[in-house]
Structure formats: C-alpha cells, structure tokens
Write a structure and sequence with these properties.
By secondary structure, the chain is an all-alpha fold. The chain has two domains: about 200 residues, no CATH class; about 230 residues, no CATH class. The protein is about 75% helix and about 0% strand.
C-alpha cells in the first residue's frame, strides 16, 4: 500500500466523522446483525466509494486505491495457503492428533485453561509465530476441549493470549523486529523493556485462567478414555509424529523464510503419513492438501476435531482480508487516514497524552484497517520524533507499538489475525474476545504506565510539554 499517495486534502474533523460512520456501520453489521464480514466490508467499501464520488474523485483512482490495498496482503495470503495445507498434512501424519492426545492427558488436572495459556505461550515464544501456534497446538487444545465438554470459547481465548504473548516477546517474531526497527530501538533492549508491561499482563491472565479452569469430573475422565482410544484406533498417535513440529521450530529459529519453513514441515508430515496410512495415492494426497483431512472414526466428537485443514479452508479468511485491505486502500487514497494522523499529532501536549495517543492510534488502525503491520508502522512513524522531543527513548515507543498494536489485532473481527483465528479455531472473535485476557490487559497497562510515569525515565529532563512537528 502506498501510504503517501492521496487525492484529497480533508479536515481532520471530516475524516473523524467518516471514520466513525464507517466503523459504526461495519461494527453494527458484524456484531449487531451477525452478517458475514464480507458483506459488512463491502458495505463499508460502498460508503467510501460514494464519499469519493461526492468529492469528485475519479473511479479510476478509487479502483487503483483498492487494488493497491489488496496487493499489500498478497504475502499474507500465500502464507495462509501454506498454513492450510500444513494443518491437513499434520492431521494425516498424526502431529496434531498426538498433541490432542497429550492435551487430553493434561485435562486430568484442574488447571486446563491456565495450562493451555502457558503451553501456547512457550511454543509461541519458541517459534515466534502466533498464527502458526494457534493453527497447530491451538487447534489441538480447542478440539480436545470441545470433545471433553470444556468451553472451547474460553480455551480459544487462552490460546490467542498465549500465542500472542509468544509473538510479542520472541526475537524470532516479525512484529517484534518490525516494532524495534520502526522505533529505532535495539531488538533485545526492546524485548527487555516490554517485560515491564508483559509480565504483569501474563501474571494477571494466568491467575484468572486458574480461577476459570474447570474441576475434574468422572464424565470428563470417561470422555478422555473414549478420545484416546479413538486416536489410537486411527493409528494417529506416535512419537515420530512430532518430527514435523520439530522441523518447523528449528527452521523458524534459524530465521528461514515462513513459506520455506511451512513447506518443509508439510513435506515431512506427508512422508510420515505414508507410513501411518499404508500409502496414499497421488490424487488422494492432492485432495488432502486442497480439501483437508477427513476423519472417519465414527465418533462425532473425534471426527469434528480432526476433519479440518486444506487450502479450501483458508478461502473464507483470505477473501475477508483482501476486502478489508481494499477498504484500507480507499481510506488512504481519500486522505482519511492522513487527516486522522494529523489530528492526533496536533493534540499532543504532555507525555501521558503522547503515550495514550500513540496507543490509541495503534488500536484505531487495527479497527479501521484490520492490518497488524500498519498498526505498528503508522503510529511509529507519526510519533517517533515526538518521543524524542519528550526525552523518551526508542524502546518506550516500540513497547507501546507492541502493547497496543501487535496484540490488539486478534480482537478485531475483520482483521487479518481475527479472521484467520476464528477460521482455524472454529470460535468467532466476538466469542473469544472477553477471554483473550493477555491481549486486553497489555494496552491497558501501557496506557496506565503512561499516565503514572512507571518505567519511564525520571532522571532525564523529560519535557512536560511537547510541541507538534510543523507540517511540511
């Protein structure tokens, strides 16, 4: 997306009105009327096209703006396709079923949601990818909870929280590297500084998940036995089935490209599936990669857990993402986003307001555009010089970008992460939203620190007033 290209110069108040109208309409359609996101976003695009027509912007410019917006999501689309085939291959190789088996074993304790949160956090930290963590281990945990009569909604919230803790704190994560790079902070200084907000958010989330976790019941113990027996009967639980996961983790640690990593793990899973299933013909393998794995155990709960994956399963997510990014392209080209940025910059007078404005803009970009990277890039570039003038260090800016940008994206129903997670986990964003505790606490804590001055430099001459950068 070309951020600097705009065809209109509009007043911030007008941009704010159009944005409020747009978000109100889209939000009402998705949350209030429960229509599919595609229709809500098409309605938003229609509103912006009408606004552009009133402003006498040529439809050629508007079409180019939508195309430019969609182009920015092509890399994500390719990764989604590869994650789709990864899930189906991991089902056939027994990788996810083996994790489900282990997850079912964990249910014998009384702290299921807390365990889910901690395990996904550790794996997310290890591989640096929230979406991969959710699409693999997350699927296993949610599937196990559904079969055992444990809330899949709270489980999905715990999965999202743990996965995005890992994404936020891992030096392997693209968003972690992006935030430190945009702010001009050293990567490991950035990660250390994030601990001030991340650890309290983690502890608070962990305690609440402990409190919410179900107790042990005889019914669940009986269900565990049925599920484990079915997985064994399907010949899907083996120690070597975790090899594709190990390959994925090692390649991620070595910073191999995402697509190459996913492809290598998929190929290893397909190879293992030949031994498990006694050989699969070529057409059967290609059908598996496109349509997903189909379980035929005869047990409804088990079959619903395992029948998923494939490129086809990603089509819903991909179409929503392309539509949302097209809407974002219109918002830029019509000058709405640039006007909102200038409005926020003009309001800055004190450090607390600077921190809260940066966080607010990161959150707003997530809700307006649904794009995680832009929620880091736009506020980072807009407020970088203001942080310097305030006597704050780059690591303080990068922390705010992660706390209010990275981890908020999965809370937006039409965002890239939100659409993907609801698709693979089978739980809508509006359902898991109240239980994605880590993602909710992080922006609140960073704004609280901004107003109290906690963790901000006190021994430096921090400016009480910040003068806006003059517009060029």
């Amino acid at each position: 997306m070309v951020h600097n290209q705009k065809v209109l110069e509009i007043k911030p108040i007008e941009a704010a009105f159009i944005t409020a109208l747009l978000m109100g309409m889209v939000g009402y359609l998705i949350i209030g009327m429960k229509v599919v996101p595609h229709i809500a976003i098409i309605a938003g695009i229609s509103l912006l096209l009408g606004y552009g027509a009133v402003k006498k912007v040529s439809f050629r410019d508007l079409e180019v703006a939508m195309a430019d917006g969609a182009k920015s999501g092509i890399a994500a689309v390719m990764i989604f396709f590869f994650i789709g085939i990864l899930i189906s291959s991991w089902m056939a190789s027994g990788t996810i079923p083996t994790f489900i088996y282990l997850a079912v074993e964990l249910v014998s304790g009384k702290f299921y949601y807390a365990i889910v949160f901690v395990v996904t956090a550790i794996i997310g930290l290890s591989i640096g990818s929230s979406l991969t963590t959710a699409a693999t281990l997350g699927v296993a945990f949610v599937g196990a909870s559904s079969a055992l009569g444990i809330s899949p909604v709270i489980t999905a919230g715990a999965v999202v929280s743990g996965a995005f803790f890992g994404d936020k704190m891992s030096p392997l994560s693209d968003t972690t590297n992006l935030a430190s790079s945009v702010a001009g902070a050293d990567l490991f200084d950035h990660i250390k500084n994030m601990a001030w907000t991340t650890i309290p958010a983690f502890i608070l989330s962990f305690i609440i998940y402990l409190f919410l976790s179900p107790g042990e019941t005889d019914q669940r113990i009986n269900q565990m036995g049925v599920i484990k027996e079915a997985l064994n009967d399907l010949n899907l639980v083996h120690w070597y089935s975790v090899v594709p996961f190990i390959i994925l983790s090692v390649l991620a640690a070595k910073k191999v490209s995402a697509i190459a990593t996913l492809a290598a793990s998929t190929l290893s899973a397909l190879l293992i599936s030949f031994f498990i299933n006694g050989g699969v013909d070529g057409k059967g393998m290609f059908d598996l990669l496109y349509s997903g794995y189909v379980s035929e155990s005869g047990i409804k709960e088990v079959d619903s857990m395992l029948s998923r994956g494939g490129m086809e399963s990603m089509m819903f997510s991909i179409s929503v993402i392309l539509l949302a990014l097209s809407m974002g392209g219109l918002l830029f080209r019509l000058g709405i986003i640039p006007a909102l940025i200038s409005l926020l910059q003009g309001l800055l007078t004190r450090v607390p307001l600077l921190i809260s404005s940066t966080a607010g803009m990161a959150i707003a970009v997530n809700f307006i555009l649904g794009e995680q990277y832009l929620s880091i890039l736009l506020p980072g570039n807009a407020f970088k010089e203001h942080f310097k003038k305030a006597g704050l260090e780059p690591k303080h800016l990068s922390r705010v970008l992660e706390d209010a940008g990275t981890v908020v994206n999965p809370l937006v129903p039409w965002s890239v992460c939100g659409v993907f997670l609801s698709s693979v986990l089978g739980v809508s964003v509006t359902e898991y939203f109240p239980f994605a505790l880590f993602c909710l606490f992080s922006p609140l804590i960073t704004i609280f620190y901004g107003f109290t001055g906690i963790t901000l430099p006190k021994n430096k001459q921090v400016a009480r007033s910040i003068h806006p950068i003059s517009k060029e």
